[in-house]
Amino acid sequence: MVMSFQFPAYFTAIFIITRVMSIMKISKPLDVHHKDIRAVDLATKLSVDPSAIESASRDFGGIVKAEPEAVLHPSAPQDIAALIKFSYSNSVPFGIAAKGHGHSVRGQAMAENGVVVDMRSMANKRRNGTGIRVSIDRLYADVGGEQLWIDVLNATLEYGLAPVSWTDYLYLTVGGTLSNAGISGQTFRYGPQISNVLEMDVITGKADFLTCSPRMNSELFYAVLGGLGQFGIITRARIPLQPAPKRVKWVRLLYDDFSSFTKDQELLISKNGRKDKSALDYLEGSLLMDQGSPDNWRSSFFPHKDHPKIISLITKHGIIYCLEIVKHYDDRTKHSVDKEMKQVLQGLNYMPGFMFGKDVGYEEFLNRVRSGELKLKSQGLWDVPHPWLNLFIPKSQISDFNNGVFRGIVLERNITTGPVLVYPMNRQKWDDRMSAVIPDEEIFYTVGFLHSSGFDTWEAFEDQNKDIMRFCNKTGIMVKQYLPHYSTKEEWVHHFGSKWKVFQHRKYQFDPRMLLSPGQRIFNNN
Ligand code: FAD
FAD-binding PCMH-type domain spans which residues (predicted)? Predict the structure, then answer.
């Protein structure tokens, strides 16, 4: 269904757009009679203010900087459609990037010399002031692409409901995570967030405003999910909900042996039916290394009194592996949850005496990274460079990765700071028609090096990241980047592998003038 809009005309809009065009050196004079320009008051929403430009030139990564010529602060999807239409129909089109919360780390939401659409401007300005509508009867929420997941959580919890698939950190937009995948400890069971979308409204690179789902405009639906912003701007997503639990039993187990750690992880994710009550609700894993404390900014979990014994274990082994699992419960299951958790733990090969547990509210658990963020912010340590590297690695090669990377490059360089995540997921929970790229094996691991660095030291981390990629290439580890960033077309073609042709075809179909998300540098990397 193609939607069309009627807009009031404003001469000031034409003035500002003309100005933006002249700054952008777009040669064709603006056709003031063009009905689509008359159709919208872009003037009040386009900003060339230095502070808006500055903010749109940066992201969480703090490594890339690219200045747009203007920033659009839309108050409705129609504003975005009008901007895209304007660029699409111009003889010299300009790039347009939706910026969600700007938590990319490599400039993916930037548009050098183009226009950045500040999606957050739409938050709370539409749909009766909420941007999130919950259907209690049909168990879904319609949420604006600009909404933060924390707001989705709060709005749905009001009805005792919640989505099932999350990211570790909730101050990310719905449009931003659906453009990648949205993974966390629930992925092994429910799939990534992109596997949990019923339908979407999307404005394509041709300015068509389409509703898409597995049955309606399905090519666009699958293209956009994990599509790195290349095919359209998501303005609404319908997310399925389930009754929310009240609390969680949260357990961490320590291992000195990688093989026991991964065997146990794989055993635990083998129970993964959505409706299987004996399955875990969350499973992740991480490395503990000599960083002064077994806790890191993302989590303070271990009791203080146990720090010395954990630290001495780390000192002895260099790296300790931490398995993290969760079981939900509510009033109905509160009497049985401990017994169930005990059954889960039976037969696992963690180090005796190194099991730690917590019992916290469901929301506190989901929002667990927030307190670390606030602490870092108060110390001025949040807005520092983040030379992150996120990878997917086939199960059959994760042991080689441990030997060569964790126990090789990482220990030798001895610069790794911040969390290093490692946990498995099931390929069957992903839909191959989507644009997201994952390894071919049924079980694969995600590894996230979530470094924070000093302003002068990020290059050392970048060198380490390159070393890791070189090692994988040399030894034939079939690694795929998550939140990928490459600088040449060849690298992108290699990244997409057998999906490249379809990805490219979809680009021609939905964004033939290559307007959208230029900061990903897939189609405009020269
Ligand atoms: P942005 O950085 O603003 O945009 C990302 C890309 O999506 C850009 O290409 C942009 O143009 C495009 N885009 C944005 N909005 C839209 C839209 N509405 N329609 C179409 N395209 C759009 N990821 C996980 O999967 N799991 C995690 O647990 C996780 N934890 C994180 C923790 C932190 C502290 C940070 C900083 C990031 C984390 N991420 C995680 C990564 C995160 O999911 C991605 O970086 C995501 O893109 C960030 O969302 P955003 O709203 O900031 O998107």
Answer: 64-244
